[in-house]
Amino acid sequence: MRISTLLHTTGAIVTFVGLFMVFPLVWALVYREGDALPLLWSLLITTGSGALAWRLTPRPSEITVRESFAVVTFGWLGAALFGALPFVLSGSIPSFTDAFFETMSGFTTTGASILTDIESLPHGVLFWRSLTHWLGGMGIIVLSLAILPVLGIGGMQLYKAEIPGPVAEKLAPRIGQTAKILWTVYALISAVETAALMLAGMNLFDALCHTFGTMATGGFSTRNASIAHYGGLVQWIIIVFMLVAGANFSLHYYALRGRFRNYWRSEEFRFYLLIILFGTLVLAADNLATIHPNLLVGVRASIFQAVSITTTTGFVTADYEKWSASAQFILLMFMFIGGCAGSTGGSVKVLRVMVLFKQGLAELKKLLHPRAVVPVRVDGHVVSPELALNILGFTFLYLFLFSLASIVMALLGMDLVSAIASVAATLGNVGPGLGSVGPTDNYAHVVPVGKWLLSLLMLLGRLEIYTVLVLFSRDFWRK
Amino acid sequence: MRISTLLHTTGAIVTFVGLFMVFPLVWALVYREGDALPLLWSLLITTGSGALAWRLTPRPSEITVRESFAVVTFGWLGAALFGALPFVLSGSIPSFTDAFFETMSGFTTTGASILTDIESLPHGVLFWRSLTHWLGGMGIIVLSLAILPVLGIGGMQLYKAEIPGPVAEKLAPRIGQTAKILWTVYALISAVETAALMLAGMNLFDALCHTFGTMATGGFSTRNASIAHYGGLVQWIIIVFMLVAGANFSLHYYALRGRFRNYWRSEEFRFYLLIILFGTLVLAADNLATIHPNLLVGVRASIFQAVSITTTTGFVTADYEKWSASAQFILLMFMFIGGCAGSTGGSVKVLRVMVLFKQGLAELKKLLHPRAVVPVRVDGHVVSPELALNILGFTFLYLFLFSLASIVMALLGMDLVSAIASVAATLGNVGPGLGSVGPTDNYAHVVPVGKWLLSLLMLLGRLEIYTVLVLFSRDFWRK
Asked: Which B residues 394-433 touch A at CB under 8 Å?
């Protein structure tokens, strides 16, 4: 582990993030609400500090696999630390703990907020808040489709061959090129959503902010009432794009090149739709019977929440805490499934859940045919025992972290449901939970220690746990 | 699958169970509370029906591995069906649904009860209720140490070599002999507990009933207040014997032969103590700060509940729902860990949790040393990938069943916490849960459909899921 490498890459990432502050600055100049100067200062401090670290360290000839864990983790940490500046300097979020929580929530595309009155914030700061989602989502796509498979984390190797690009064999040197292709896809779809939202009546500002929240499966809105603020058309548009954002982006790449059939060929994508269909049906049955006697409204509210939670977006159109216990339990379970691998969605991921499910059924078959080889396949490819164990290890650590953190949150004074839900919603990068951190609440009341813990959970969840956890092992820092 | 084999073995098991009804009959004759005749009828019907099925079918020359799944499942089902007779015929539990729930809860050593006033039951019926625990525990020890390893269910093969007996190589033909050895150990320890409880002031009746509840990690008490009815000495005795019952019985076998060191040599046993120590510490810290300012009482209540829930016994000395949210969460988590493999405890089992934990850490090591082989070991033996996947499949199916059943219980009208806890407490064979099925409540208010579902969960949990689930596959019934 060379510290200079770490400084070099983190500096580059921070500079990159800082340059993006020019966009909220433009909005601040348009709306003139006093946040232009704080944003300018933030931009200068961020790019200045980033550039210093970046330019004063030698460019590493190569980054080892081991170093890339630290590069990714510190990259996200650096972005969240400097990204908090606009909130603090503008006075929108005076406490640094709160500002860091909000920014980490943004960059990890979680969408958990400590704000009690979102609409009171100046437009520049609001734009920055949503932009952190979009930048985080950008990072995640490259991370999950280009970096994690190489690092060998949690079964993502299954997608080694899925990464779009001219040569499918050599991966590491292609990360840059893969990134460019994926970002183009990401930007293109984002542009389409923005246009669609504007056609549905949103102004450019709100359309951009909600596009950022959707495409990154983030969930920050510019409205206190989240998407409930808008009409049915906007809600349907957001449903569609949440579905898109929760699917593997390499499928979108193929679709843009005319190969639409790949969607249906992908077992994970089919499983993903199946999960959402199941959730929607249960929620709708429940909703129509009690809360929303109007068929259209009831179905829309059900599908919106099923999609929003499964994709770990966290937008809200209804106070689902008023729904039945079964509805709430399903939403809580969905927080543990998450989006597809290679999407901007968080949590355990559909792919892993699917492999675990198939492994469970395979064991059942083995009991009847003890001598038979019962391979688990995904898209026709056999999942090796090593890969399945990799997924097993990941999922167990995920649940273990969830349990441990829930105990701590409860020890910090939260009630049982809120403690469980706050951890599930941050570790899974969902955003809103249940109880005191439900869809109509926020995280403002959490004690500072709790906010730092939840921020760490967001990072752990976003970077697939191992990327961060490995930094805590003694082996990692050994020569 | 030969139906005659199934009738033969189930008949034998039912006859065996029926013969044990002579003991409650004796108590009924001692106390003369009107339950003697119903017990006599139950005995006659049970042994009669069992003997008919047993003697009228040919003795199978051998039982195939496949048939043994059905033999085990139908054995338990038969016992619960006929075992419900004393409750129904005596009028103690008029509804058959309730009586079946109570009996299944007994034979699966769960301890969930639909009774609202236990002390109003006649002594004969009460004795039968507790005896179902002891008989169920007897069945479980043989199942987990002699049958499941052969069936290859959920990693229990790890204990193939652990089974006591003269020849360690040939297992299947030794099931009968192994059973005898283990039952002797079980009976011996039970006798010691009964003696200890009597020395502590209990009468023979209560001492026997509570021994049955302890050794089977069942949890039925003869008192409405459960173990809170008794003083500190009784509570400490029960803590010790719950710990014994939640450990692998082959360790006790070795200890009785003078090899005490095997306890400490067993990684699972050490892990088991560690879990309980961790739970006790968190509960105690919490208890001493708020509920029980008295050091001794607070520590005793904490250790009692940690041991009672981890071993899946379900005895209660305190209303832990009045404890903090963290305490309740820990107890809920412990419902998913359970006793050691080869104990009478239920749930996922310490062994599996330990392997999953080690696998999670092994994956972390592999990230740093991609080319290294990082084997997971238990007691020095390498856990093969096949075995680890077996455990993975089991654990995932367990969590999947838990999720699915929780949704159903919530759909049946339970609140979120009660729905989750009722499923965790029955699938894990614990007994008391949280919410409306908490330590001071019972399962009487659950709707009939819910009671049947929970009864099925008790059976699924007790028989390690696969044993029952495999019967639902089309392959199973095919020639």
From this structure: 394-397, 400, 403, 406-408, 410-411, 414-417, 419-420
Distances (CA, A) of B398 to A336, A354, A478, B32, B401: 15, 15, 39, 45, 5
Q: Using the beta-carbon criterion (under 8 Å), do B364 and A394 form an inter-chain contact?
A: no
Residues of B in contact with A371 (CB under 8 A): none
Q: Say how many residues make up chain A.
A: 479
Task: Give contacts of B406 with chain A, Cβ < 8 Å.
Answer: 329
- Residue A181: pLDDT over 90: no
Q: Region B373-379: what's the mean pLDDT?
A: 87
Task: Single out the residue of A337, A362, A371, A390 nearest to residue B154, CA to CA.
Answer: A362
Which amino acid is it at B230?
A: Y
* Residue A366: predicted pLDDT: 84
- Using alpha carbons, list the distances in angstroms from residue A50 to A19, A108, B22, B47: 10, 20, 83, 83
DSSP assigned state of A59: P
CB B112 within 8 A of CB B118: no
H helices of A143-203, in order, are 148-151, 175-199
Q: How far apart are CA B439 and CA B224, in angstroms?
A: 11
**Residue A399: CB partners within 8 Å, gap ≥ 6?**
none
Give the closest residue to A314 by CA, choosing from A208, A376, A198, A227: A227
pLDDT in tens, B442-479: 999 999 999 999 999 999 999 999 889 888 887 787 76
Q: Which of B65, B72, B329 to mutate to test the interface with A (most CBs of A within 10 A)?
A: B329
DSSP string spanning A134-153? HHHHHHHHHIIIIIHHHHT-
Distance of CA A329 to the CA centre of its chain: 21
User: Which distant-in-sequence residues (6+ apart) come within 8 Å of A324 by Cβ?
Assistant: A286, A290, B410, B411
If contacts are CB pairs under 8 Å, which of residues 103-142 in chain A contact chain B? none
> Among all chains, which residue has been given the structure tokens 């029955």?
B426
* Residue A300: closest CA among A315, A312, A265, B251: A315
Mutate to test the interface with A, among B392, B395, B447 (most CBs of A within 10 A): B392
Q: What is the pLDDT of residues A241-254, one digit of tens each?
A: 999 999 999 899 88
| Count of pairs with CB atoms under 8 A, one residue in A, one in B | 176
**H or E element: which one contains A382?**
strand A381-383
Structure tokens at B310: 């981890």
Give a three-class secondary structure readout of B358-411: HHHHHHHHHHHCCCCCCCEEECCEEECHHHHHHHHHHHHHHHHHHHHHHHHHHH
With beta carbons less than 8 A apart as the criterion, state whether B394 and B351 touch: no
A377 DSSP β-pair partners: A382
Task: Count CB-CB contacts under 10 A for residue A134.
Answer: 27
d(CA A42, CA A35): 11
Query: Are B392 and A390 a contacting pair at CB < 8 A?
Result: no
The single-letter DSSP state of residue B59 is P
d(CA B145, CA B149): 7
Q: What is the ipTM of this complex?
A: 0.85
Q: Do B419 and A282 make contact, defined as CB atoms within 8 angstroms?
A: no
Structure tokens at A392: 């097993």
Residue B332 near residue B355, CB atoms below 8 Å: no
How far is the alpha carbon of A128 from chain B, nearest alpha carbon, in Å? 35
> Per-residue pLDDT tens for A66-96?
888 899 999 999 999 999 999 999 999 999 9
Flag if A368 and B324 touch (Cβ within 8 Å).
Answer: no
pLDDT in tens, A309-334: 999 999 999 999 988 888 899 999 99
How, if at all, do strands B376-378 and A381-383 pair?
A: unpaired
